Amino acid sequence: MHYQGERQQVIRIGKEIYQQGLVAGTWGNVSCRLKPDHYFLITPSGMPYESLQPEDLVVMDLEGNIVDGERKPSSEYRLHVRIYKERPDAGAIVHVHSPWALAYAVAYQPIPVLLEESAQVLGGPVPVARYAHAGTDELAAAACEALGKESKAVLLANHGLVGLGKNLEEALLVCIIAEKTARIGLTARLLGTVNSLSPEDVQYLHQSFRDYGQPKPKN
Ligand SMILES: [Zn+2]
């Protein structure tokens, strides 16, 4: 079987979104781009994350064809296809139905940049895509329109949250930070004023976070 490492990673992230309460049951889905980069690997439709096996994942191309796999792919594969086509920077996509982000998705309000973490990881507010039925081309189009070329995440109206990353770890982190920001935003409203970071501070924090940590080894 090809792509063993990627299969293990997708399963690990799938278990993580389930265990962290970002999805219930078999909702949500996870994918990552493969080599060649017009292929991607995606979770199957309607199977519990806890029991996923490497062979349950589906390899697809950016035309929406199944390249390898016995299972039916996630019903949201059109969303993944469209994002990979329109966002060459996306190496992985995590889609969840997390409750605090969903509150904003129901209110049709973007999640503001409230925390340093939001500025660092998300780099801007999380926009809301207009409502469209799950699994449709219309939803994929609405999500990409709201995402534009820069956003790392998008809220799907009355539905959920999608996070993009250069890899699976980053796409998961984007979802976790968007969910945390939404939780803090709504909790802070109980205290009164909610103060967002200024665009200048967001830009500074996002830029400096890229340089954070240990320098990359030189080749
Ligand atoms: Zn969904």
Distance between the termini: 31 Å
Return the CATH class.
Alpha Beta
Ligands in the model, by name, code or SMILES, are: zinc ion
Helical percentage? 40-55%
Q: For this structure, what is the CATH homologous superfamily?
A: Class II aldolase/adducin N-terminal domain
Count of distinct strands: 8
CATH topology: L-fuculose-1-phosphate Aldolase
SSE succession = HEEEEHEHHEHEEHH
Instruction: Return the average pLDDT rounded to an integer.
Output: 95
Strand order of the largest sheet: 4-3-2-1-5-8-7-6
Task: Please characterize this protein's 3D structure.
This protein is α+β, with helices and mostly antiparallel strands. The protein has a single domain, classed as Class II aldolase/adducin N-terminal domain (L-fuculose-1-phosphate Aldolase), CATH 3.40.225. It contains seven helices and eight strands; from the N terminus they run H-E-E-E-E-H-E-H-H-E-H-E-E-H-H. It has an eight-stranded mixed beta sheet, sandwiched between helices. Helix 3 packs across helix 6 and helix 4 crosses helix 7. The mean pLDDT is 95. Zinc ion binds next to loops.
Brief digest:
The chain has helices at 4-19, 77-86, 99-107, 116-122, 137-147, 168-191, 199-210; strands at residues 29-33, 39-42, 58-61, 66-68, 92-96, 128-129, 153-156, 160-165. With 219 residues, it is an alpha+beta fold.
